[in-house]
Amino acid sequence: MKIGVLAVQGDFAEHIASLRKVGVEAQEVRLPHQIEGLDGLIIPGGESTTLSRLMSIYGLREPVERLCREGKGLWGTCAGMIMMAREITEEDPEPLGLMDIGVQRNSFGRQIDSFEQDLEVDAFDGGPFHGIFIRAPGVIRVGAGVEVLASLPDGQPVAMRQGKMLASSFHPELTKDTRFHQLFLDIASDLTSDLTSGGSAASL
Which member of 14, 15, 147, 173 is catalytic? Predict the structure, then answer.
């Protein structure tokens, strides 16, 4: 497996460390040619408007969209989920429009309102996953082809899958639990055929 982590802004180093724990030597991606040949790409958390601006400056938007259309794995965490969304409630940033979800930035409040929550995740065993939510975006719409993998106790979706796309509003890379990173590897390797594969971005 050849997995890249977008490394222009945000907590990309933590994702790389988590991938190493599951046996993958990840590649930092800062320029378009570094996306070529990848089996999957992670868009990390950070500041979504800055992330969007840097992706445009470095010409990364179209290569990421193409990677998704070609059926490769794509995972966005927090700000990365905002970038993957079909639409957001704010005018900025401009999302990539890949996953059929609607997202609201900073839905749970400011930095001081960050929280942690144990989550029941349908996609893997081993008990609850400890979710860390930092200025987390909220999902306000889930398309018909999107599977919700985890929700908060009030029913708010916080982890979703559509085809080979994975999105989470929290930060799995800030925990020692690597189950979400292993899940992404399985998705990128096409080893999760029991989960929905509908709604691929190949048609976008």
Answer: 173
E strands, 56-146, are 73-77, 85-88, 99-104, 115-119, 129-133, 138-142
Q: What is the CATH number of domain 3-203?
A: 3.40.50.880
Distance of CA 102 to the CA centre of its chain: 14
**Residue 68, SS3 per DSSP:** helix
Whether 91 is catalytic is no
Of 15, 68, 171, 181, the catalytic one is 171
| Greatest CA separation for the chain | 42
Query: What pLDDT score does 137 carry?
Result: 93
Catalytic residue chosen out of the listed positions 68, 78, 147, 181: 78
pTM (predicted TM-score): 0.91
Radius of gyration of the chain (CA): 15
173 catalytic residue (yes or no): yes
pLDDT at 193: 47
Domain ranges of the chain: 3-203
Annotated active-site residue 87? The verdict is no
Closest CA to 172 of 48, 60, 31, 5: 5
